[in-house]
Amino acid sequence: MLTLGKSVEKIKLKLRLLIKLGCGGLVRDFKGDLISGFLANVGCSTVYDAEVWGLDNALNLAWDLGLKKVVIESDDLAVVQELTGRKMRDNSLHLIIYRIKNMIHMDWEVLVKYIPRHANGCANKNELLRDAFDYGVNTNLGD
Questions:
Q1: Digits of tens for pLDDT over the chain (143 positions)?
Q2: What is the pLDDT of residue 15?
Q3: What span, in angstroms and rounded, lies between the C-alpha atoms of 30 and 49?
Q4: Of 5, 31, 38, 114, which cross-links 80 as Cys (Cβ 3.0–4.6 Å)?
Q5: What's the alpha-carbon Rg for the chain, to the nearest Å?
Q6: Are 61 and 35 in contact (CB under 8 A)?
Q7: CA–CA separation, 13 vs 10, rounded Å?
Q8: Which residues touch 5 (CB under 8 Å, ≥6 apart)?
Q9: How does 77-88 read in b/e, with b if 16+ C-beta sit within 10 Å?
Q10: In a 3-state reduction of DSSP, which class is residue 130?
Q11: What was the pLDDT predicted at 91?
Q12: What is the CB neighbour count within 10 angstroms for residue 65?
């Protein structure tokens, strides 16, 4: 039992949910045909962290494929607001977010937009597949 030096009536606890999570994304052409994709197990993290890592992987994949017009759809409103706004939250992923923001402004057109979870079929399918992969990124979903 914890003993405090003073009489304490109220304490504040900050909790952070950490669970085993994955991220993934699909690259489709304008007709909806699959070009490529990725799945990654990001380990023990928050949903926010997994979404940020997913966006980082997605942009790197799109850049490596030489795409010039990219629409990123995310069902995490907080991440979309962070990437499309001027202020950055103070969190452990600020360097990744800074890198993503820099990538968005490179020599290509990138639109980051919010899509409700129920409309994000890609995310729902990836949840079923992520446990089949070890830690790391698999970009061979289109093969």
A1: 445 555 556 655 655 556 777 788 888 888 888 888 888 888 888 888 888 998 999 899 999 999 999 988 888 888 999 898 876 677 778 889 999 999 999 999 999 989 887 766 555 455 444 444 444 444 444 44
A2: 57
A3: 29
A4: 114
A5: 18
A6: no
A7: 10
A8: none
A9: eebbebbeeeee
A10: helix
A11: 74
A12: 13
CA pair distance 124, 25, nearest whole angstrom: 11
| Residue-level pLDDT at 106 | 95
Q: 40 has which bridge partners?
A: 23, 137
Q: Is 37 helix (H, G, I), strand (E, B) or coil?
A: strand
In order of their start, the domains of the chain are: 19-131 (3.30.420.10)
In DSSP terms, which residues pair with 26 in a beta bridge? 37
CA distance 134 to 14: 31
Give this prediction's pTM. 0.70
Residue 101's identity, in one-letter code, is K
